């Protein structure tokens, strides 16, 4: 019997030589896979061979193999079109290059079109269109009507032409010419502030002066109210002109305004100064504001006033006059008559910017067509520069209670003039501590206005966007709810003398009273009973932007919101789960190997 047959059989694992230390990790992994393979096959018996291999690599492979397997797993399960063909292991290189090209082209086209939508949403979010229905005229206030006569002085009180030539000749040392008295100098300095700028070549007086002195002097020399405003009608009912017209200070001097809010409502507490308060207004505009209009409980005669329909009978009628002897071609030029400005009741009249001229011996009909722009509530969360307007509570002015583009520009001009000249014009908003420009500062504040216009133009041009106004230092955007009164004017010759019946004693008295006077007649009314309102609204809202982007992603890549959630899931939840499973498996491997060892 041989030696081999008499020796007991020794198991192979007892005589096996252990691998070198450098191969310890491979030996442990192989032992674990051999131990865990039957159980793993039972858990994935329903999976394909590729899926089993992928899950093995995630659990037992190296870090690089696990990462590669996770990417393959995402490609197999993702709902984004075309990605699965990149993750298939047995696809030829030509097919992979084809699908890579298709995916790159789809992504490029989708991104380009999405950027176009983003540009429209970001730069053109607002569209101005007509409102769904027309608006009746009784829903808006009748315009504030500010009237300024071109005749600034009464010759029997102060002759501006003679005083101008006397001052110029005296400063030129012309013999026999005496200087003006202090009283005349004060009147000349006040009147020169409302005369044409070319007359400012003759300087007289100080750089600053009390504003109340200027206003009192202009009031003293101006034509009497009763000699200028002869007859008035409102809604076809005769009224005293002094009951509906109130004194206001403008850059054109002392004017009178109908249907304007009182200074106590227009100005804030800081801007209410004695220079601007000429009356005590008992009524407040409780039933109206710019954004909401009239309240539902407002009656037929609210404040500010409104009309009940179109036509001359429902509007304002004025019969005005002026004495020929008081006409002064030196101060205002060879044009006589009146300036009329139509504006919203909450605005301060700026007569020099836009006005209608009413000449003497003419009857003028002014038919109004309102132009209103409102803004939808959907734009309130947009920045003002994107929607290009301010809501009332978004922009607070220092001197005004009511925000409007006109009030904002006037306040900005006052601040700029104060910075440049050290004073402001007598008609500009200010507080009691601000100095008012005197006669010697006339050129300065006129130049300041021109410089501000140039600065605003330059800054707006530099900062302007594609369809947006550039931001400037004043940055006076329109109000989100604004009212403008566009007018159509017709006129004809008016000979008031033919109206007077000279056969009666009253007619003869009227003719004698009006001797040497020229007359004008004005009717102001709404042209139509309804008008179309414009409305700012969202052109591309958030919903529209998401819908357009989702449509492009779905068209070119088959991407939906769930596809994005799926990608986030694979990068977070699924990745963390796989890492935990891998860590747990490695711990079991080490425990089993250590136990066997």
TrEMBL record:
One of its GO terms (molecular function) is ligand-gated sodium channel activity. PROSITE patterns: ASC. It comes from the Eukaryota. It is found in: Membrane. Residues 1-24 are annotated as: Disordered. InterPro entries: ENaC (IPR001873), ENaC_CS (IPR020903). Keywords: Ion channel, Ion transport, Membrane, Sodium, Sodium channel, Sodium transport, Transmembrane, Transmembrane helix, Transport. Gene3D superfamilies: Acid-sensing ion channels like domains (2.60.470.10), YojJ-like (1.10.287.770). It is a multi-pass membrane protein. The chain crosses the membrane at residues 552-576. Its main location: membrane. Residues 1-10 have a biased composition (Polar residues). GO terms for cellular component: dendrite membrane; monoatomic ion channel complex. GO terms for biological process: detection of chemical stimulus involved in sensory perception of pain; detection of mechanical stimulus involved in sensory perception of pain; detection of temperature stimulus involved in sensory perception of pain; larval locomotory behavior; proprioception. Belongs to the amiloride-sensitive sodium channel (TC 1.A.6) family. This is Pickpocket protein 28. It comes from Drosophila yakuba (Fruit fly).
